[in-house]
Each structure stands twice: as C-alpha cells, then as structure tokens.
C-alpha cells in the first residue's frame, strides 16, 4: 500500500530529530489566525492583498486564505534566499520577483513562513510601505526569538520555536521536506 497517501503521516527520516509541531496543532493555530484576520479586516474598503513570500510560505498561505471569510486577493514575491543547501543567514536581501498588485491605498498582509534575523520582513515592510498602502501587517507561522537581529512587528504569529533548523509545511532543507504535514527539527549538518 502507498504510505504516502494523503492520510498517512510520513515517518521521520534519519535527517530529522523530532516533530516540533504536529499537523493538528498547525491546523488549529491556522484556524485561530484566519479567524482573527477575518475579524480585523472585516471593514476593509477593498480586498486585502495577501503577499506570500516564496517559496516557504506557500502552504501556510494556501491554508490561511482558504479559511478567510473576507474579500482578498493572493500575490507573491520572491527574494534571494540562503545558499543552495545552506542555512547561513545574510542581511543582504534582494528581490528576485516582485508582486503584481498595485498596493496604493490597499490593506497588505505579508504572509511569511518564519522569522529568523528579521532582515527579510524588515526589508518587505519598508519596501511595501513606500508603495503607499492603506496598511501593512505581517502573518508569520514560526518565530525564532533567539535569532532576532532587527526588531520586526509580527501581527499574527503561529508559534515561537527554539533556534534549530526546521522543515515541513512549506519549509525546506535544500528543497527537501516541504510537503511534510508537520514541522520537524533537522539534524544539524556536519561538514
Ligand atoms: P530572516 O533572517 O531574514 O530569515 O528573518 C527569514 C528566512 O530565512 C529562512 N529560514 C528558514 N527556512 N527552516 C527553513 O526552511 C528554518 O529553520 C529557517 N530559518 C530561517 C526562511 O526562508 C525565512 O523566510
Ligand atoms: Mg522564506
């Protein structure tokens, strides 16, 4: 029988130390966040622009937007990321692909997988604010508070986590593990 059917929970591989957040906990938290977001934007004059930060946020974004009961549109942005297989952070954020919606006068909600140093969200908030939106807020699934270098305001937070590399639910290591339904801790890679 195919163990990768949608109902089976994929087992941990030797690369993964433990499940940090299981699929049920993610679902419940995403439900809460979507309810909160729907309430807060209920009086938006125009559809909210949800901007998913590629690629890590795509599953979080997909789950959030399908639970919203407010008018919204989905957009995406791609930024330079860490090295190919690496996990080194750099404060040097570069745009690879811009959004397509005109943000002027609109409510913009940045949807990000994880807040680490803060460089990425700081860059996005500044960049989007310059486009004269009605508002810019952030929804972040995971936060590593021990890693912050730049303070960033998170309006909707899923979970705080320790300073470990995590994969699953959109997050990857060298493009692997994105489709795991849970968040798992990666075994540190030794050179
Ligand atoms: P900064 O440092 O700009 O980083 O806040 C945010 C980006 O770093 C990536 N990141 C991770 N990706 N597992 C991942 O798959 C992790 O544990 C992790 N920590 C940081 C992520 O791309 C995020 O957008
Ligand atoms: Mg990311």
From TrEMBL:
- A single BP term in Gene Ontology: IMP salvage
Cofactor dependence is on: Mg(2+)
Q: In which pathway does it act?
A: Purine metabolism; IMP biosynthesis via salvage pathway; IMP from hypoxanthine: step 1/1
The record's principal subcellular location, in a coarse class, is cytoplasm
- Supply the alphabetized keyword list: Cytoplasm, Glycosyltransferase, Magnesium, Metal-binding, Nucleotide-binding, Purine salvage, Transferase
Provide the E.C. number(s) assigned to this enzyme: 2.4.2.8
Q: Which GO terms describe its molecular function?
A: guanine phosphoribosyltransferase activity; hypoxanthine phosphoribosyltransferase activity; magnesium ion binding; nucleotide binding
Q: What enzyme category does the UniProt record give? A: transferase
- Provide the Phosphoribosyltransferase domain boundaries: 26-173
Q: Where in the cell is it found?
A: Cytoplasm
Gene Ontology cellular component terms for the protein in this record: cytosol
Reactions that this protein is recorded to catalyse: IMP + diphosphate = hypoxanthine + 5-phospho-alpha-D-ribose 1-diphosphate; GMP + diphosphate = guanine + 5-phospho-alpha-D-ribose 1-diphosphate
Family as reported in the entry's similarity comment: Belongs to the purine/pyrimidine phosphoribosyltransferase family.
Report the protein name in the record. Answer: Hypoxanthine phosphoribosyltransferase
Q: Which organism is it from?
A: Parasphaerochaeta coccoides (strain ATCC BAA-1237 / DSM 17374 / SPN1)
Q: What stretch of the parent protein is included here? A: 36 to 226 of 226
């Amino acid at each position: 029988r195919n163990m990768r059917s949608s109902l089976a929970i994929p087992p941990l591989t030797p690369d993964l130390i433990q499940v940090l957040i299981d699929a049920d906990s993610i679902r419940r938290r995403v439900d809460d966040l979507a309810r909160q977001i729907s309430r807060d934007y209920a009086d938006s004059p125009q559809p909210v622009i949800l901007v998913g930060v590629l690629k890590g946020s795509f599953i979080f974004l997909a789950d959030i937007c399908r639970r919203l009961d407010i008018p919204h549109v989905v957009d995406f942005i791609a930024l330079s990321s860490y090295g190919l297989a690496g996990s080194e952070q750099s404060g040097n954020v570069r745009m690879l692909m811009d959004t397509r919606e005109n943000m002027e006068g609109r409510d913009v909600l940045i949807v990000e997988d994880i807040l680490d140093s803060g460089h990425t969200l700081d860059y996005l908030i500044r960049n989007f604010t310059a486009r004269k939106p009605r508002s810019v807020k952030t929804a972040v699934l995971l936060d590593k508070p021990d890693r912050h270098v730049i303070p960033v305001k998170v309006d909707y937070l899923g979970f705080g986590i320790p300073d470990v590399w995590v994969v699953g639910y959109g997050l990857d290591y060298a493009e692997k593990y994105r489709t795991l339904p849970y968040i798992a801790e990666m075994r540190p890679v030794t050179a």
